[in-house]
Amino acid sequence: PARRGGPSPAPARPQPCPAPRSGADRDAEPEPRGAAEMLSSPWARFYSNSCCLCCHVRTGTIILGVWYLIINSVVLLILLSALTDPDQYHLTSAELGGDFEFMDDANMCIATAISLLMILICAMATYGAYKQHAAWIIPFFCYQIFDFALNTLVAISVLVYPSTIQDYLRQLPSNFPYKEEIMSVNPTCLVVTILLFISIILAFKGYLISCVWNCYRYINGRNNSDVLVYITTNDTAV
Questions:
Q1: Residue bearing the bigger pLDDT, 222 or 48
Q2: I want to staple 140 with a disulfide (CB 3.0 to 4.6 A). Which of 16, 26, 114, 125 is the partner?
Q3: Exposure pattern of 99-111 as b/e (b: 16+ CB <10 Å)?
Q4: What is the pLDDT of residues 20-71, one digit of tens each?
Q5: What is the pTM of this model?
Q6: Quick one: how far is CA 49 from the chain centroid?
Q7: Half-sphere exposure at residue 70, Cβ-oriented, CA atoms within 13 angstroms
Q8: Could you say which DSSP state residue 232 is in?
């Protein structure tokens, strides 16, 4: 209460309500830290939903998985037929020009096990891309990384030791197609041609790796965005 004879206090002025923000004002606000870091990450520039400029990365991953599945199934059928009829795929040392056999039983069993494992990995990738389960694509992605690293080591070995190409050509059978024509080529031109061929293969494999990785990110991001959070109170549910 005011003192007797003193000035009466001024009435409190009502505070104006803030004006509703327009869409431009909301867009001008800084983005959250997590989204900004995601957009500024070095891997964000390689992210794309298109594959081979004509289809989605999910469709491309399914096609790639089916293609690898068909190839490994054909290889498995050849290996099984070779196990059932060893004389059909057996080459003597005279035909090979060396003191070793083309494929023995141990190598055939190992190759068969690898083919079965590859069929399982490719089937998992195809199913994961079709049903949008990101975790099922990881084994196929790891196989692609291993295959890319193995081909890179081959290219480095050819670059560091170019004489190994001539040694490898001499160990081929005498009836190998175009053996004499290949050996008559200049060694430098032969090394450059092989390195160019391996570089094209590595570039193509790297592009396929990026497509599978983008498919994994797409499925993982879509699954995370589908999570709904419900906040319940006594009388409301949001």
A1: 222
A2: 125
A3: eeeeeeeeebeeb
A4: 554 444 444 444 444 444 444 554 555 566 666 667 888 889 999 999 999 9
A5: 0.66
A6: 14
A7: 5
A8: B
